[in-house]
Structures are given as C-alpha cells and as structure tokens.
C-alpha cells in the first residue's frame, strides 16, 4: 500500500481533511437546499404567474365561450403576444373541442410540434386545473367558467428557458460558494493547526526526542489549560516520575554494585585467608615428607597433604562458582598445546586411576590440530573434573578420554571431548540435573563419594563460556560418557610453548640466593623449606620495607614477594626495588609475586608494578621449581642432582611399581587398521629388536666415557621408550641424555646399569602385556 | 354519372349556405335552440336594479311572449342554469300586462307588431327585451339575434338598455356583434 491509511496520516492533515470535508458537505447541503428551494419557489412563482394570467384570460374567455364567439376568443388569446414567454394558448369547450388557439408568431415549426406532442402527452385539458414542466417549457391548464359550472379549459404553454438561465446562474453562485468554502476551510484548518495540532505535534516531537535521546529531563511546554494542557502536565509529571525513578534506580544499582564488589572483595579476602593457612598445612606436610620419617608417619603426612589438596580443590570450586555466578569469570586467550594439556591431565590423574586399578587412556584423533588459542587452564579444569568424576564413580574397568575434530571453519576448530567410563552410570531422569549446581545424581552419592556437587555445574558454565555444549549419555550401571564441545582458534604459532625441554623438574637443583618477603611465619617456613630443598639459599624479610632495604644492600638472584604484608605491601616494595635498581643501573632482579588472591586482576596488578611472574599460594615444590627454572639464569640451574634425596627415592619406588603405562600402549589401538595384525605387537617387537643394539652402544659409550655417544644413544632409547609408555625408562634415559649433553656425567656405568635393568623389566612387562592380549 | 353527383353536391352545399345566411334561417329549430341557450345565459351578464327582485334568492324570470318558438328545450336549459346565485324560470305570456313580471323577455318575430303595446306595458320596469327580428333594436329592443355567416350572433343597443335601467356586462358587450 503506497498510499498511507487515513489513521496513519499526520493529525495536521487529518484535521485539514476533516474540516474541508465537513465544510464542503455543509455547503453542498446548503447549496442543494438553496438550489432546490430556488427551483421550487421559481416554479411556484412561474405557476402562480401563469395561472393568474390564465385565469384572467379564462375569465375574459367566458363570454366568448358561452356565446361561442371564437373570433372574440381568438382576439383575447392573441393579446398574449404581449407576453413573449407564452408560446401557445389553447381554449377548449367543456366537451373537449378546441375552441380557440393562439401561437406565438415567432414560434418555429419544430417547437410547435414539440408543444403539440407535449400537450398530447399530458392531456391537460382533461385533467383540468394542473401544470406540467417539460424540458424547455411548461404547460398549465385552468378551468374557464364559474365555480361549479365549467364551460371550458384554457391551456397555456410557456417558455422555460429563463428558468435554465436562472439555474446556470445558481450553479455559478454555488461554485463560488464552494471555492470560498474551500478557502475558508483551508484558513480555518491553518488556524486550528495553530491552536490544536501544533501543540500536539510539538508534544509528539518532544516525546520522540525523549525516546530517541533517552533523556528524561526533557519537558513538554504547556501553552494552555485545556485537555492538551492536562496531557502535557500528565506527561511531564510522568517524566518527572521516570527521572526520579531512574535516579533511585541508579542509586540502587550503585548500591548493588558496591555490595557485589564488596562480596567479590570478601571472596578474594576469604580466599587469601583460607589459602594462607592451607599453604602452611600443605607446605609443612611436603616438608615433613622430605624428612626422615617412618612408613606410618609418611602415610599420615601424606593423608594430611591429600586432604589439604582436596580442601583446596573444594575452595577453588566454590570460588570459581562464585566468580561464574557473578559473571566475573573471564577466559584467557593464550596459546597452548592440546596434547600436552590432555596428557598432563591424564598424568595427574593416573595415580588415582592406578590406585583403583583402572585403565586410564587418552586418544587424540590424528586430525586434531596441535596448537590452539584459548584458556588451557580452564580446559584442564574441565577435563580434570570429568576424568576425576569418571575415576571416582568407576570401580572396575577403564576411563577413556577421546578428543575428536568435528570440523574446521576458517580458523576455528570445533572439538568434541568424550570421557567414557565403565562406572555406575547415571539414571536417565537425573542426567539433566547433574549439570545444575549443588546436584549430584543422588543425595547419597555425596555421602558415598564426597565432593561439592559444583564440579559439573562449573564445567557446564565453562563450556558455555567456550561456546560449547556439554552432555552425558549413560545407561545406569553400564558406565557413562560425558561429552563436551568447544571452539578454539587454531594457533598459527607452531612452536610449542613448552619448547623448553621437558625436564623432570624434581631432578633439578638451583644454586641461587633468594629473598623471600613474607609476613606469615608458617609460610616463611614453608617457602624456606621448599626452596632450600631445591638447593637455594634463603633470606627472609618480614615485610616489604625490610625487603626493599635488604635488596639495596645485597644482590639476590630472585625475590619471592608476598603481595599483602604489613608496613609495606609487595606492590609498593616492588616499585621501590625497581626504582632503586634503575638508579643503581643494576639489572632487574626477577620478582615473583606470592599471592593468595585467586581473583582475576591480581596477575595484571602484579605485572603492572614490575613483578615478573606470579605464583598462587598454596604452592608446592614443583611449582616453585618451574618458576625457578624459568626465571633463574642458567648458571644457577644445576641439573646435576645432589645425593638422591629421600623424596626422589620415594618417587622412584613409587614409579617403579608401574614400568609401563598401558594407556600409552593402548592408545595405539586407535591406529589399528581393521584386518591388520595388532599394531601394538608390531611396535613392541620392533622396539625389542632395536633396543638391545642401543643398550650395547650405551654400554660402550659409558665404558669409554664418550658423553657424545652416550647422550645420542640415551636420546634414541628415551624416545622409543616413551612412545611405548615405558616412562621410568624414558626418564632415566632423559637424565642421562641431559648430563651427556652437558658432559658432566658422573658414574655413567652405574646409570647405564640402572637403565639396563629397567629395560629388562620393561621388556618382560611388554611381553607379559602382549601375551595377555 | 360521377359528374352529375359532383354537381349535386356543390349545389346542395351552396343551397344550405344560402339558407343559413338568411334571416329566415334564424328561425330554424337549430338556431332557436342556440338562441334559447343564449337567452338563458344573458341572465348572468345583466345586472337588474334591486327592486326588480322580491329578495336576494328570487329567480330570474325569462318570459316568452306570444307563440313559443323554443319548446321545452329552453326549460331544460333553464333548469340547470344558475345566474349569479339565482335560479332561472321560464314563463310564457299571452297577455301584455303579465309580462311585467319578467326580467328577460323574448319577443318572437311573430309578435313584432305588438312591440309598441309591450313597450308601453313595460314602462317603469327593467326588462331585458330580446328578439330576433330585423329593426328590433329600433323598436326599443335591447338584444337582437342575428346571423353572421353561419353563426348566431347578437347586437346590443346600449341606449335602449340604459332606458330600461339595466346594466349589461362588458363581457357580453365584448362578444356582441354590433353595439348601438
């Protein structure tokens, strides 16, 4: 519809149309009435006039008619020639015989014929007193004679062209009235526009402005006290209300935001408060494990540490959940190696799987790209959660992580992760609920298996943040498959972030002088203990001020700086240290923040004041070692281990319990082509065939103390062993390789013997596994 | 044969015309019928003095003197006639004294020799004296029927009328053939 509907037109146009329409209607009706009345009155006067004339003539004709004197009658009728509009006169006797006739002399034959036709048509002489209008003339008949004694009929036919002239004149007049009406209506509507529509239009414009600018301080101008005035007043007061409410809302919003901020700060504070004693518990437990304690004591301390770690996980869960609830959780966007993340996660959980005698395997489909950009920490968290749950709820069988590539769109990879277990499974009715907070498949589950019930809720939220979905497929009693999808940008940066050689950190020692600025005595002890265990020499500072003073006097290889300390906090101390360094022109000492803050923003703040890195309390020895190896100059790093410590031995004994990680071996199953011989068997046989030669060259190199050949052989064996899951053998080779590269191998023969014995065990184990298939 | 018939027709038409135009034709039955009607109609065109009537409702008396040339036809015409609110009665008079009762008096051609006697009797009365004889108006007649062409017309003597104290309507005068 191109033409707008009348109701959508501007009120201005509407008013104009209505006014003009009604004016025209009124003038039309008035003109109609006027013309009608004119016609009627004109006709009446014509009739009266004519009938008067007819009566006079009639009376005059009475005697001629009575005495049958047609000559006289003719004479009388011919006197009508004085009236030019009389075209014809006819006098009839009572019996209808034509007695006398007059015709206007100038009357044309045609007109005369027309008159006759009309006369015949109307038969007026029979009707008696009557009149009749015909196109251009009218006819009128009267009786002649005395009342009650009719002796004849007189018919007059008169010209009516005068009437048409009058009609034409009337039409001109009416047209004039119409034009005037239109002009007046236009004038009137423009006046009305000023009085009525303009205020309305102004009001509409004001409201439109309010709507467009969302500015509720705009007010309409009140010009009158009529309904429009009331409307304006009403709108203004509504705007007042809205403005007032907005202000109140703003205040309320501010209050709520303040409260929320306070909550967040409270959470951060709580986290700090809880983490600090946790640091003490976990740190001291770790330290205690490194001391000479008997097996029973070891078990107890180990339990303390495990409990502490669970507690820490719970706190982390709750914090994460709070952050997600508050919408404060933001994902990082950093490069990571998916395989590394997956393997790390599986590694971390393998111990627990082993304890329950479960097979834990990870298969990454070959099409999955290696490097992505995203939040590896959160991805790890999800995997930890799902795998941890799977292990928790599985008592027999296996837990398998599968990673598939769904599709690649542009730079985005759509991944699907599946964690399958052979555990208790989940009732169909509960499958949706378990992703809700504080929900486990069964209330009794909590009692039996523990946990906050937040894990899956957090996973759900995290997956949503990663533009993915999460779900579960399960038959109760037959295990469950939890799956989730994510979208990651594929990283073009191919070099792994972990380009630093993967070293078994525990084997590294550090020859460094380190300052620990930390006010909490427990944490001091923990940090000192752990760092000293890593070979460092430690100075302690109780607060930032002391730290700043000490650093001015003594050079440190690295500083650990607690962020929150009395007198001077870590941020301020860092600033001062950096300032002093600038003045002295000395190189910047790496400063690592020790913070219990787990909230986002802490890291940025630390980096902003000049700190180099960031470690969250509670930390363990491994985390410290990673930091140290990252930030200490290479000269401080001693890969040559000192006398094997107890913890290493412990670890060694622990790890010797498993010579082969079957999950690695099992992962080859995925590569299995149907119909071909078992790929694992082939791999193992190749390994077993080639390895003795390497062992031989190892021995030879050790005997000759040829470190070059030694590390090359160790490297080869390391890689092939690792790919079959012989982790201990691989790490032994790795140690030898590193030492060989640095040509500082002490007692190479002893190490080769150790490798040889491990290889034999591995070979036996492999054969056992394969035969068991 | 056709020839003879045509001549006969022409002749008979000529003959007829000739008879109608003659005074004698004025006495024909058809002419007398028309004269009877006219005679009655005159009553509405003439105004008598008030003393001529006994009262306002008194009838107009049309008298026929002597031998009646109209017959009963005139009674028929009079019965349905109304002259300005008065009925019209037709009376026939044999003797001159009785004619004083009439308002209109018709003198047939046969009674013309008694015209003087009639005039004498009527002296002092207002009577419209109507006749159809030559020289009628010269003998104190007021209206005299004449034959004009084939039509019956009448002449009026205003002098005689005034002598009789009668007022004749101008309308009647307008249709009169001649006025003396």
Would you write up a description of this structure?
Chain A has 773 residues and is an alpha/beta fold. Chain A has 4 domains: 11-167, 2-Layer Sandwich (Beta-Lactamase); 330-498, Heat Shock Protein 90, CATH 3.30.565; 505-638, Rossmann fold (3-Layer(aba) Sandwich); 658-670 and 679-772, Four Helix Bundle (Hemerythrin (Met), subunit A). Helices cover 57% and strands 16% of the residues of chain A. Residues 494-506 and 640-657 of chain A have low confidence and may be disordered. The model of chain B is unreliable at 15-22 (pLDDT under 50). In chain B, the strands form 2 sheets. Chain B has an 8-stranded mixed beta sheet with strand order 3-4-2-5-6-7-8-10. Chain B has a two-stranded antiparallel ribbon with strand order 1-9. Chain B has one domain: Response regulator (Rossmann fold, 3-Layer(aba) Sandwich). Chains A and B meet through helix 1 of A and helix 2, strand 8 and helix 6 of B.
CATH architecture of the largest domain in chain A: 2-Layer Sandwich
What's the assembly state of these chains?
Answer: heterodimer
Summarize the helix and strand pattern of chain B as letters. Answer: HHEEHEEEHEEEHEHE
Number of helices of chain A: 22
- Segments of chain B where pLDDT lies below 50 for 5+ residues? 15-22
Would you give the CATH topology of the largest domain in chain A? Answer: Heat Shock Protein 90
CATH architecture classification of chain B: 3-Layer(aba) Sandwich
Structural class call of chain B reads alpha/beta
Number of domains of chain A: 4
Q: How much of the polypeptide of chain A forms β-strand, as a percent range?
A: 15-25%
Topology, element by element:
The complex is a heterodimer of chains A (773) and B (180).
Chain A: H1 11-66, H2 70-78, E1 86-93, E2 98-103, H3 109-122, H4 124-127, E3 130-134, E4 137-146, E5 149-159, H5 161-213, H6 227-289, H7 295-325, E6 334-337, H8 338-355, E7 359-364, E8 371-374, H9 376-392, E9 398-409, E10 412-421, H10 443-449, H11 455-465, E11 470-474, E12 480-490, E13 509-510, E14 513-517, H12 521-533, E15 537-541, H13 544-553, E16 558-562, H14 570-584, E17 591-595, H15 602-608, E18 613-616, H16 621-631, E19 637-638, H17 646-656, H18 662-667, H19 679-704, H20 707-724, H21 727-741, H22 748-772
Helix pairs in contact in A: 1-2, 1-5, 6-7, 6-12, 7-11, 8-9, 9-11, 13-14, 19-20, 19-22, 20-21, 21-22
Chain B: H1 2-21, H2 29-42, E1 46-47, E2 60-65, H3 73-79, E3 82-83, E4 86-93, E5 104-107, H4 115-121, E6 128-131, E7 143-148, E8 151-156, H5 158-163, E9 167-168, H6 170-175, E10 178-179
Parallel strand pairs in B: 2-4, 2-5, 5-6, 6-7, 8-10
Antiparallel strand pairs in B: 1-9, 3-4, 7-8
